[in-house]
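Please produce the structure of this protein holding flavin mononucleotide.
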Amino acid sequence: MTLPVDMSTTLANAWFPTPIFTASGCASSGKELSQFFALKDVGAIVTKSVMTKPRHGRPTPRMAETPSGMLNSIGLQGPGIDAFLANDLPWLLEQKARVVVSIAGETIEEYSTLARKIRSASGISALEVNISCPNVENRGLVFACDPDASRRVIDGVRKTIGGELPIIAKLSPDVTNLPEIAKGVVDAGADALALINTVLGMVINLETMKPHLGGKTGGLSGPAIKPIAVRAIYQVHAALPHVPILGMGGVSSGRDALELILAGASAISVGTASFGNPTALITIQNELRELLAARGFATMQQAVGYAHRDETQ
Ligand SMILES: Cc1cc2nc3c(=O)[nH]c(=O)nc-3n(C[C@H](O)[C@H](O)[C@H](O)COP(=O)(O)O)c2cc1C
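Below is the modeled complex.
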């Protein structure tokens, strides 16, 4: 008989009973998933990235199936921060879910405005700052691909939000030196990192012989990007071993989740897998518990970064 595993985890000063979270943008504010399981039974609900104003997103079509994954160009459609704080957040807290609010802006000022509005809300476990979207002030360059812009966003959010709420900076793998970007945002005030956002891709439609997505390019997610996520998490954990990582990218089984944890993730977000199977988070959580027990781990946290150990010592 295997002993029970303590699945609890922390991201900076936020505590979660289990390490399996939703991924931003893949479960909206959790309502659809609540038909399938109690939201308090997973580690946290990470909301779709909220912006200051309601948005319709990018032109259709916005999704394409690809081998082992999907390409999306939703373009941060959503109700805007005021409607989110008035409706979605209270509903999530009523469900006793732990809530990680994801924010996104087109300018550095927009992130600070969002942080100012969130400062007055209570019950939030952490703030995920999605800097993997284009900075309109800088000719559309993605914030997270520019070390200086990344730092300035996080610095503005940290100064506005104060010291208590953990800030998780969500980074893009589409850069040459990911540990350098990671160090920059940690120095600017991020307590944890979310790795990885989608990878930029494109699909050409052979009938129209033009790019299939209305927005031309899109974000690739799902099993196809898991090795990129494992590499990114491993590299960043090696460079910054004390900075907690919320890992994601292609997790659709307990085995996938364990791989990201061994690379250095303290918690896991599940995105694309929930589209095909709305109970994926619960299955992954149960499988992960079994896999940890079978490998003799008494706590999930003992497995974090285990792939980095030096057996010669
Ligand atoms: C349809 C869709 C919408 C997404 N929207 C967001 C978003 O609003 N904010 C964000 O930070 N990431 C967003 N993502 C990225 C996911 O949170 C996640 O980083 C990525 O999909 C990799 O995980 P997965 O392979 O488990 O889906 C979105 C992904 C998908 C597929």
